[in-house]
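>> received
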Amino acid sequence: MNIFSRLFIKRIAATVSALLVVAIGCAAGFWQMSRAHQKIGLAESMAAKQQLPPLSLNAQDWTLEEAAERRVVAKGSFLPAETIWLDNRPRPVPLGGVENASQSGFYVMTPLRLAGTETILWIKRGWAPRNNDERTQLPPVSTPSELVEVEGIALANPGKVFELGKNTASVNRPRIEQNFDLEQEAQLHAWRQLPFILQESGGDGADGLTKNWAPPSTGVERHYAYAFQWFALAFSGFLFWLITGLMQQRKRGDKSE
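>> returned
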């Protein structure tokens, strides 16, 4: 019987515990690596699609599959009374930027009625800082009342944050929500809407909103760092099991002499 066999057989509880730590560490590490690869793939896909000519959302009813991650243009009128303020959103930081990265605020979601139709398109207009002392005191944001043309990227949703319980949309004003659900909004208002949102880009910030959206690959380095930590935990668990086992074997050998 070699030394590794003795370490396994004579230390069953320690071995099982070590295997559990190694399994959890490796599984979590590989999951973080897969998340990083997903973000890289999404960024590459968006970069390729954004080289294509922009789609006119007024030309026809586009599906999510047709419009997703493409540059799109929409002409219509905002419905400012139906604006939703998505809470607990970090300030968008463009690639290479670090200023005010931890500042919390709102994503401002306002529906746009497409010109000449009754179809609604939700616009993720930008980010606005929150009042840390009074949550319901909203930042000043101006919304054009005239016909506007909005440009941006078509996305399935504006992004989600962790939320306790199920989101139940209401008509209370102002509408400060944790997350946004397209289907829920369609049912609440009983209106016809496109199956995606438009994340507005560009603009001079005259409306008081920040539109410097971070690229999808943002956070890849963090996933790699987390993966390293999990793999290090797995390796540390194995080393602890091995070293303590060797020390016990050495003590047994000393006593038998």
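>> The two ends are 19 Å apart (CA to CA).
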